Amino acid sequence: MKSIVVEEPLLKFWVLDTVPTEDIKTTKTPEKIKILIDSTLREQLNKQHNRLHVPQCEQLMSDIHQQMMLLLNHNMSVAYFEIDDIVIIEKKYYFINDKKVINMINNNSVINKMIDNSIMFLPYELNSENDIVSLPVTLHCNSYMYSLGLLTLFCLFNISFKTHSDALTVLNQIIGIELYWCILRCLEINAQKRKLLFI
User: Fold this and answer.
1) Is it the case that residue 174 has pLDDT exceeding 50?
2) 40-69 per-residue burial string, b: 16 or more CB within 10 A, e: under 16
3) pLDDT value of position 21
4) How far is CA 30 from the centre of its chain?
5) How confident is the model at residue 20 (pLDDT cuts 50, 70, 90)?
6) Does residue 158 surpass a pLDDT of 90?
7) Residue ranges in 17-161 assigned as alpha helix (H)
8) With 0-12 CB in 10 A as exposed, 13-18 as middle and 19+ as buried, what is 101?
9) What's the predicted TM-score (pTM) here?
10) Are 24 and 98 in contact (CB under 8 A)?
């Protein structure tokens, strides 16, 4: 466990429950706050032979989804996640990369610049496999669910996948359990039909 001085606006937002401004990157609190970080997601993976257990994956999805819902309440969202975007505080997962926060208008955001296609957990609409992504791209507020589903799947199996079909093949190794159905709904190609739901 390590103590850090919290500078990241998003971490202040989640942990201290501060209200963000229109641009979350300018959100400030009056003083520096020390918070104990248990570890990062990458450190946790390294300690567990690069794989999370099913309950940890369920918590990862639930914690990050709750944070995304809070962002959406302020007309903001996130397009995609990477392993180094997530830390663990008091056994909860927190997304802390404020550079990935995008503003939403009517549940959509327009991306005008190319995103590195080598990023592993891009939503389907930013990585249409063999097709070239044409700019601008309109992202629905549910786009993050696809990325979170891919990230969780990778954390569960430590298997890389390049296509939607590859991801579904890996997912079928846990067919039938709650986590399977939750990730499957997140990997819906049509962003408007995605749901993050445990049943």
Assistant:
1) yes
2) bbeebbeeeeeebeeebbbbbbebbbebbe
3) 47
4) 28
5) very low
6) yes
7) 41-47, 54-73, 143-157
8) buried
9) 0.86
10) yes
Fold for 2-193, please state it. Answer: Transferase(Phosphotransferase); domain 1 (1.10.510)
The position carrying tokens 């993976």 is 45
How many other C-beta atoms can be found within 10 angstroms of the C-beta atom of residue 32? 9
* Secondary structure (3-state) at 95: strand
Confidence of residue 33 (pLDDT cuts 50, 70, 90): low
- Residue 191: CB partners within 8 Å, gap ≥ 6? 123, 124, 125, 139, 140, 142, 143, 145, 146
The tokens of 66 are what?
């709750």
Q: Where are the domains of the chain?
A: 2-193
Non-local (6+) Cβ contacts of 87 within 8 A are 11, 37, 38, 39, 40, 41, 93, 94, 96
Residue 83 burial by Cβ neighbours in a 10 Å radius (0-12, 13-18, 19+): middle
Phi, psi of 38 (to 5 degrees): -65, -50
Residue holding tokens 């992202």? 139
Strands 33-37 and 2-6: antiparallel
Kindly report, residue by residue over 56-95, the tens digit of the pLDDT.
Answer: 999 999 999 999 999 998 899 999 999 999 999 888 999 9
Q: Measured between alpha carbons, how far is residue 130 from residues 124, 138, 161 in Å?
A: 11, 19, 14
Per-chain mean pLDDT for the chain: 85
